[in-house]
Amino acid sequence: MKKIKFLLYPFFFFVAVLFVSCKQSEAKKSKETIIKGKTVLLVDETIKPLIEDQIAVFENTYDAKIILEAKSEKELMQAFLKDTSRIVVLSRQLSVDEAKFFEQLNIKPRVTKIATDAIALISNKKDADTLIAMKDVVAFLKGSAGTKIKGLVFDNPNSSTVRFMTTLAGLKEVSHKGVYSFKSNEEVVKFVSENDGMIGVIGVNWLLQPTVNIKDYLTNINVLSVQGLNKNSYFAPTQNNLAEGTYPLARDLFIINCQGYSGLGMGFASFLAGEIGQRIVLKSGMLPTKMPGRKILIKSRIK
């Protein structure tokens, strides 16, 4: 009889731990609604300035606290799948395997497109040429000689910009010796401003909403107009070119919510896709998914 009791102790302990865990989870849900509570938001660091602005307005409007954690894309997905947070802002949608992971947890990912972004190519002011062809960039990534490019500079080896460019070039990874990577977009801007012949690959958001640390360096760089593969014309990363679909390094941005309940993930996604959120996108220099309306006030008389 004592042996049976002894064997049952681990079972009861497991049940107790599970019960406490469920209670804690339920308590978290009860404290959090779509406009109230506290949560962590994982964000692709290439678009950090935009989401910082969005969070500031959201928190000023509602009784909510959103803690932003900006990481490289690979680091983001590791944290997302480990349940560091179930809300993430990415420049891509979930892969088939990532979607299956959440299906096994009986969670249906809620995906909301919030903007169209641009990856900008920048050079030093000393480089007179402000045009660059993607065929030359691709050739450099593949290790071909004969291009004017001395080096390509990325913010992080695990960045979404690296994935975007390697996919465009048809490569699985970048190993060419002329390709450099740092730890942030700020370091890319600084390095290019101090070294001619280098081409920086950066989220355009950092150029349109620069931090105090990089404002002075921006005076020493050019934002290049890019010729797409098999194209004849060059286009700059402007809102108009994003809207017309002519800029070759455009990408869509998404907020993906896998909380599995009606929490701040749902509320913040609605805010980003709503009137105020889309106006913030428009002001940032990116292209809103839904163009905010303009109210026209008609006066009966002119003073």
From TrEMBL:
Residues 40-274 form the PBP domain. Signal peptide: none annotated. Pfam families: PBP_like_2. The keyword Signal applies. It comes from the Bacteria. Keywords: Signal. InterPro entries: PBP_domain (IPR024370), Phosphate_ABC_transporter (IPR050811). Gene3D superfamilies: Periplasmic binding protein-like II. PANTHER family: PERIPLASMIC PHOSPHATE BINDING COMPONENT OF PHOSPHATE ABC TRANSPORTER, PHOSPHATE-BINDING PROTEIN PSTS. This is Phosphate ABC transporter substrate-binding protein. It comes from Flavobacterium commune. The lineage of its organism: Bacteria, Pseudomonadati, Bacteroidota, Flavobacteriia, Flavobacteriales.
